[in-house]
Amino acid sequence: MSERPTALITGASRGVGAAVARVLAPTHDVLLGGRDRKALDEVAAGLPGARAWPVELTEVTEADVADIDRLDVLVHSAGVTTLGRIGELPVSVWRDTMQVNLFAVAELTRLLLPALRRAGGHVLCVNSGSGQRANPGWGAYAASKFALRAFADALRQEEPELRVTTVYPGRIDTDMQRSVREQEGGDYQPDRYLTAETVARAVLAAVTAGPDAHLTELTIRPSAGPVT
Questions:
Q1: Secondary structure element (H or E) that encloses residue 8, with its range
Q2: Which residues contact 127 (CB under 8 A, 6 or more apart)?
Q3: Comparing C-alpha atoms, which of 41, 43, 48, 56 is closest to residue 14?
Q4: What is the mean pLDDT of residues 123-144?
Q5: Residues 66, 63: Cα–Cα separation, whole Å
Q6: Which of 67, 73, 183, 198 could join 83 via S-S bond, C-beta 3.0 to 4.6 A?
């Protein structure tokens, strides 16, 4: 790594995470976090100053972050979505959803706080419209995203030397969205969704805001309107 600022992005093998890596790479050395080493290496190959950081986020330990002494940007982009009505979802789905969407975020942030504090860093949580409202069939996912919102709000108050931003995108044209539409039994309509690059540019706007600015929340909706 060089003397440039460093950013760590989870879920960086595809989708929004990979898009965020691409927009930050011109100005940051980028650590690409995720489970799929091959996919991470493929993303890193096209970016100067980028390298894979393969890890199981639900099992991250101090050893995984031992060589990260200073961290300027931490982007939490990894997540899972399993739909189902409350009367039908087993507790295992609630546990798995919370494990990835909340617990892994909290633990990785905790482990990286010393490095973030040294840099006066920035933590960004890619949340969801489901972190602002809950709809039928989305109970487990929305609960995890409301909890992620609370995590970010608490972190912002506990660590006043850090910037903490929550990004609330609407539907995004990603592999995850394809899975969601399959679960909903609806058509996949990419022209009605945000692109991953649009969400990444919102993250970049928060990161590059002037030193006198702290963008705490950003809500982004597709201009095409609600999906049916």
A1: strand 6-9
A2: 145, 148, 149, 152, 166, 167, 168, 169
A3: 43
A4: 96
A5: 5
A6: 183
